[in-house]
Amino acid sequence: MSSAPASRSRHHPQGTPGPAWLCLLLLLTACTPAAGTNPGIKARLTRKALEFGRQFGLELLQSLLQKEHELNLRGSHYSPLLGTFTYAVPRIHIHELQINDSAVDFAEDVGVRLTVQRARIWLSAEWGAQLGAIQDKGSIELRMRDLAVAAVLGVSVDGTGRPMVWSAGCDARGTDLHMEFHRGHSWLYNLLAPLLQRPLRQELNKQLCLELRRGIHRLEAALKHVKVSTQLDPFAAIDHSLMGRPAIMAEHGDVALKGEFFRVGKCQQRPSSALPVALPVELPAALPTVLPAAHEPMLLLAITEFVANSAAFAYFTAGALRRNISSNTLPRRFPLQLRTKSMGVFSPQLQERYPDQPMELHLSARRQPLLSCHPDALHGALFSSAEAFVVLPNATRVPAFLLNIDANVTGKPTITGNRLGGTVSLRGLSVAQVTSHVGPVEVKRLETLLKFGLWLFGVPWANKRLRAGVPLPAPHGLSLFNPRLSLQEGFMLITTDLQYKS
What we know:
Largest sheet: 7 strands, antiparallel
Oligomer: single chain
Structural class: alpha+beta
Order of helices and strands: HEHEEEEEEHEEEEEEHEHHEEEEEHEEE
Shape: rod-shaped
Radius of gyration: 34 Å
Strand content: 35-45%
Distance between the termini: 32 Å
């Protein structure tokens, strides 16, 4: 993933993130630096999530088995009465797999265990046989009851931060096998069926585990191509690689993701480091302190306050946090219009030198925005520069003055379904003059007017877009169900169930 660095021109860069997206950065928490050892995002899957996923595991098991399989089964049996009987079964076709009892749980320090009891299987196969000088061929139908399968899927991480899986164990046992031969001298072979049941049952049990291992190998190959980073726009991407192997306990499994934003085309390291987050954490006050098993969420997602800080750093270093404002971009009712006649109230010499001329304001972040998470709200500090230009009739832009404008904001994130939104409030604003080519600027009067304008227009405009929210990424068909969001010291916690809609 590569891209040319963003231009540092004062003009608005092509593809700059929308205002709603930039405002949303104030409402996101979390981040891990490349140099740190703590994850920016930590997820916990509970036993309830495993139960939810059990149906998908059974569907996968059935899809793996209900098809034709190479068997290449060969054997012989000696009977004093008939002599040596040899047989060959090159392949089998599984028509039906009926699963009555199944369970899934965590295999501590390994992965996930799936057990199936009292399953039934129906399959058919072509066969060839020889008894003395007589050669024959036909088909056979087998039905096995009381089939039990136990399989363990190991879960880990490779050197690139991608998940990896392997077959950590498999055992299949079926005790009740019924077989029936068709075509050829089937009447004779049906008499010998009791003698063939044991080797066929053993081979079938072995074949079931072999097919499961082949399916896991295919999954392992697919995981090698999983993306560990995603580019969001021309400026930034997020690294969501695993920071270590999942921690599998008896009751839950924890996954740690890096969760770091970085500049496209240049992966930089931040000097700070994320604080460790231990799950479980105190759940939202609206929930009972001790959750009954029936109300245990499927997923707990903790996002530390450095994800947003790494995003702010990436966009700041890419030059994306800048915007040019003219009279046409301000609301008509905004109390401050970008013309020398209006701005002359704060700088008398401006109107004297350039009577009633249009102006432009070039806004840019002079420092990276800083974000922190506290139980009461998200807190943000914005550090910007505003350079004012007079636009002459020949389109020449003449610098007028340069100001530093700093703001303190707070935000309240919200989550509805699969959308993350929120609201933002302005808590403080300060304006300071840096340089001026048109004499002193009355910054206190300007500061008061800006506060009023932002309170009247800017904050409502931002909140209207923030309330709509942005969709959270989720696999196809999977969505959050009854999600709850709470703010903790240093991170945001989402607890939710999951639902699947095909």
